[in-house]
Amino acid sequence: xxxxxxxxxxxxxxxxxxxxxxxxxxxxxxxxxxxxxxxxxxxxxxxxxxxxxxxxxxxxxxxxxxxxxxxxxxxxxxxxxxxxxxxxxxxxxxxxxxxxxxxxxxxxxxxxxxxxxxxxxxxxxxxxxxxxxxxxxxxxxxxxx
Length: 145
Known about the structure:
- InterPro entries: DUF3597 (IPR022016).
- Residues 5-140 form the DUF3597 domain.
- This is 3-oxoacyl-ACP reductase-like protein.
- By secondary structure, the protein is mainly alpha-helical.
- The chain has helices at residues 3-22, 28-35, 37-40, 64-74, 85-91, 98-107, 117-134, and strands at residues 62-63, 137-138.
- It contains seven helices and two strands; from the N terminus they run αααβααααβ.
- It is globular.
């Protein structure tokens, strides 16, 4: 699995779990099953064929800042995830080694010198935040661009 996919999974799956904790509702599948004609028809009665499926409902936007702030509150470490790619990766319990960051840089098509880790790290943080925003994450305004 790619490094960026691991980041997405930790943030987006964590955001879904937090949203589920805040709003305990029936799952969309359970709601659809309960509303289907087959569920309402008596046993053995003929049922109409299911309506063709339209495009799935858009996924709710995950508040990246809220997810990461909540993780930071639970963490025993003081991590500056808003500025540091290393701290962001640590907060997500991912490998933050230089080798892992170089791999992430390669995946995100970093064209700078990977031996200049300070410059690469700043670029990586911005690139990850940009990718999160492009893929359904609500990124705090102060972390955009």
